């Protein structure tokens, strides 16, 4: 069968996604993303989330990324490539969903291209660890199952598949529980008979229940269920409460809205026009938008743009509807071909303007390039200080030895391919506004772990600005008595000829100086 180019434009969208996101693949994983990459590596080695290491979220994203790491090792490029693949597949799902829903091929193409252009721009603040991209994938997959046929007449099998996909989204990020309720209401807009509605709703909830029960069965079989609930009650509730304090929550969300407006200025008139084109057939998209908006603004207290990725498909679809409306108006009311060309040109410019910024990412890349230097390893290990620290850790530790790490650069363990002593990354605790006595408890737990296990290496990040994140005096005192300062890293101790202004991260590497402790221990 001959491949017809005009009928398969959409198959080139994944290539566009990889092209747009290429600049981000040349940058190191950032804090959360580095830790997610590290936990994916631990899973690939057979370790169990919650029981063997700290993880505040449900683990499906980390498990997905662990699959290629099981075959290929712990390269930090794997999470970036996997996230890009997820975005590319999401673009195709958006195309098919809109094509099935509207019977309009070019509306589907336009929606997926707008999403491809903006998804990279929204993701950049996450630095390679946007769980929202994985959530969008499962939501688009859920819609695919019911939109492929007439969504007003769902079958038992399609509603179960829909529920399975929603359940998977919850296993990426537990805040997705909100969407279970929202989509439960959705089914009352579908069939005409109450008996059918109840049956379809029950089928959908059965799909969700199956996924969640598989997860809890896994926790039970791996003896990690108590650890899971302990983390949720001890950490997640405090994290949520910290972000949800009235003034802070409002300020953070206002900042997020301001960022959304700034980054979607070219789309604003198109979204406005597209909004008025919605009718009953778009109800599935409207419900997706409601669920996404609720999730975004409950978590939006930090104001990070990547939290809004979950509503980006809605934004892209509304913009595409606006473009189609303007095009139809131009064809119907403008006989002058020149006017049609101008309208088409400026409409295209409204879409491509942010895309061109995304491709070049000039300001962001210039800022990062001024901080990063090409290291001695692969092109992904291009931060000189982080690479040198990680290389020295590998040189000082065998694969079955661990190190203790006090700091915020959570990419170091995966770059070093060595285990950390402590389960809980202190960085997560110290950015919470929790009582001083609890902070003191976390500090003392860290010191107690070093006293008990005597790790061969202790790494300290010494330039942390937040007072609660700085290494406690008792730790410095312990190190000065039992350890020797093996190396210091940072602008004051490393010079790179012909280059200045790279990152200001500074570290101290302390090595145990008592021979009886140098044998190290496994985790």
Topology summary:
Elements lengths: L12 H9 L9 H14 L15 H13 L4 H26 L2 H19 L7 H17 L8 H17 L4 H10 L7 H28 L3 H19 L2 H18 L4 H8 L7 H17 L12 H22 L3 H24 L1 H8 L14 H13 L5 E5 L5 H5 L2 E2 L5 H5 L5 H18 L3 E5 L11 H10 E7 L17 E6 L11
Parallel strand pairs: 1-2, 1-3
Antiparallel strand pairs: 3-5, 4-5
Helix pairs in contact: 1-4, 1-5, 2-3, 4-5, 4-6, 5-14, 5-15, 6-7, 7-9, 8-13, 12-14, 14-15
H-E string: HHHHHHHHHHHHHHHHHEHEHHEHEE
Poorly predicted sequence stretches spanning 5 or more consecutive residues: 365-382, 492-503, 518-523
The biggest sheet, with number of strands, parallel, antiparallel or mixed sense and barrel status, is: 5 strands, mixed
Structural class: mainly alpha
Total beta-strand segments: 5
State the end-to-end CA separation.
57 Å
The count of helical stretches stands at 21
Strand order of the largest sheet: 2-1-3-5-4
- Strand composition percent: under 5%
From the alpha-carbon coordinates, what is the Rg to the nearest angstrom? Answer: 25 Å
- Mass-distribution shape: globular
- What integer is the average pLDDT? 80
Q: What is the percent of helical residues?
A: 55-70%
Description:
With 523 residues, the protein is mainly α. Helix content is 61%, strand content 5%. Strands 2-1-3-5-4 form a five-stranded mixed beta sheet. Helix 5 packs across helix 14, helix 5 (105-123) runs parallel beside helix 15 and helix 14 (312-333) packs antiparallel against helix 15 (337-360). The chain is globular. It starts with 12 loop residues before the first helix and ends in an 11-residue tail after the last strand.
């Amino acid at each position: 069968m001959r491949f017809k180019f005009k009928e398969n434009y959409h198959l080139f969208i994944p290539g566009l996604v990889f092209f747009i996101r290429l600049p981000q693949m040349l940058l190191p994983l950032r804090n959360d993303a580095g830790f997610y990459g590290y936990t994916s590596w631990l899973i690939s080695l057979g370790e169990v989330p919650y029981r063997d290491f700290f993880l505040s979220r449900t683990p499906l994203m980390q498990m997905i990324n662990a699959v290629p790491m099981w075959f290929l090792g712990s390269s930090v490029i794997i999470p970036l490539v996997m996230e890009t693949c997820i975005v590319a597949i999401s673009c195709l799902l958006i195309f098919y969903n809109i094509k099935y829903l509207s019977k309009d091929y070019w509306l589907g193409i336009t929606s997926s291209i707008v999403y491809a252009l903006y998804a990279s721009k929204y993701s950049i603040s996450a630095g390679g660890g946007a769980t929202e991209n994985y959530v969008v994938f499962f939501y688009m997959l859920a819609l695919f199952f019911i939109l492929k046929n007439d969504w007003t007449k769902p079958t038992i099998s399609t509603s179960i598949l829909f529920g399975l996909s929603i359940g998977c989204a919850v296993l990426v990020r537990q805040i997705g529980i909100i969407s279970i309720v929202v989509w439960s209401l959705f089914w009352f807009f579908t069939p005409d008979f109450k008996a059918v509605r109840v049956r379809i709703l029950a089928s959908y909830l059965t799909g969700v229940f199956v996924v969640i029960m598989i997860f809890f069965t896994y926790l039970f079989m791996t003896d990690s269920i108590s650890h899971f609930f302990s983390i949720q009650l001890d950490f997640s509730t405090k994290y949520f409460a910290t972000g949800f304090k009235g003034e802070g929550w409002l300020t953070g969300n206002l900042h997020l809205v301001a960022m959304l407006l700034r980054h979607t200025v070219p789309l604003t008139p198109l979204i406005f026009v597209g909004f008025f084109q919605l009718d009953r057939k778009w109800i599935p998209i409207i419900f997706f938008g409601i669920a996404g908006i609720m999730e975004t603004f409950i978590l939006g207290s930090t104001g990070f743009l990547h939290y809004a990725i979950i509503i980006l498909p809605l934004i892209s679809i509304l913009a595409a509807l606006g473009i189609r409306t303007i095009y139809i108006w131009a064809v119907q009311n403008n006989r002058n071909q020149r006017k049609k060309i101008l309208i088409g040109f400026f409409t295209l410019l409204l879409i491509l303007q942010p895309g061109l910024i995304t491709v070049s990412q000039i300001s962001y890349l210039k800022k990062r390039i001024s901080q990063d230097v090409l290291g001695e390893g692969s092109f992904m290990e291009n931060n000189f200080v982080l690479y040198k620290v990680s290389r020295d850790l590998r040189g000082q530790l065998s694969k079955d030895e661990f190190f203790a790490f006090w700091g915020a650069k959570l990419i170091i363990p995966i770059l070093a391919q060595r285990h950390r002593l402590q389960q809980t990354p202190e960085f997560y605790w110290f950015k919470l506004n929790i009582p001083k006595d609890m902070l003191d408890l976390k500090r003392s737990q860290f010191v107690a772990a070093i006293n008990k296990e005597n790790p061969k290496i202790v790494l300290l990040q010494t330039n942390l600005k937040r007072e609660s994140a700085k290494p406690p005096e008792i730790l410095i005192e312990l190190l000065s008595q039992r350890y020797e300062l093996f190396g210091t890293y940072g602008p004051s101790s490393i010079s790179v000829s012909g280059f200045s202004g790279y990152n200001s991260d500074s570290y101290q590497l302390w090595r145990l100086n008592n021979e009886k402790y140098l044998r190290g221990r496994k985790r």
